[in-house]
Design brief:
With 137 residues, this protein is of the alpha/beta class. It has six helices and five strands, in the order βαβαβαβαβαα. Helices cover 46% and strands 20% of the residues. A five-stranded parallel beta sheet has the order 2-1-3-4-5, sandwiched between helices. The longest helix is centred in the C-terminal third of the chain and has 13 residues. The radius of gyration is 14 Å and the shape is globular.
């Protein structure tokens, strides 16, 4: 991997899980954790200031009708990747989340290596938000 980093924000209602995940991900060389939130509303407000490349989003933190919430993030911040944090670990549920607008999904039951592997896939296919803004200017 090159020196590029993935600016990441975690949105999870479970403080204990969020703290554990943050501790684990802080050890990954290509990830820069820039914030933790508990709700979609908090995340939505902070997006303008923090400009993450990726949001790990607990699907239970989203309002009812979450496809609309994901669409709103995409409209306001088209370069941000939204990765679902879920209990689902089978292909059918993962495909449903992709249809709802998530770029990927990661199961909470995965170990750090599996989570890191999923994030590497997002990392490889991502152009940082800052670079997209400079190209558009």
């Amino acid at each position: 991997m090159n020196k590029r980093t993935l600016k990441m924000m975690i949105c999870d209602m479970n403080d204990r899980f969020s703290h554990q995940l943050s501790s684990l991900l802080s050890q990954v060389d290509f990830i820069d954790l820039i914030g933790n939130t508990r709700t979609y509303s908090e995340t939505s407000c902070l997006l303008h200031f923090m400009e993450p490349d990726v949001i790990l989003m607990d699907i239970s933190a989203l309002p009812d009708g979450y496809p609309g919430a994901i669409h709103f993030i995409r409209k306001q911040h088209p370069g941000v990747k939204v990765v679902a944090l879920t209990m689902f670990n089978n292909e059918i549920e993962r495909n449903d989340l992709t249809r709802y607008g998530f770029d990927a999904s990661i199961s909470r039951v995965n170990d750090l290596d599996q989570i890191t592997d999923e994030l590497k896939k997002v990392y490889r296919n991502h152009t940082p938000v800052r670079a997209k803004k400079m190209v558009a200017a």
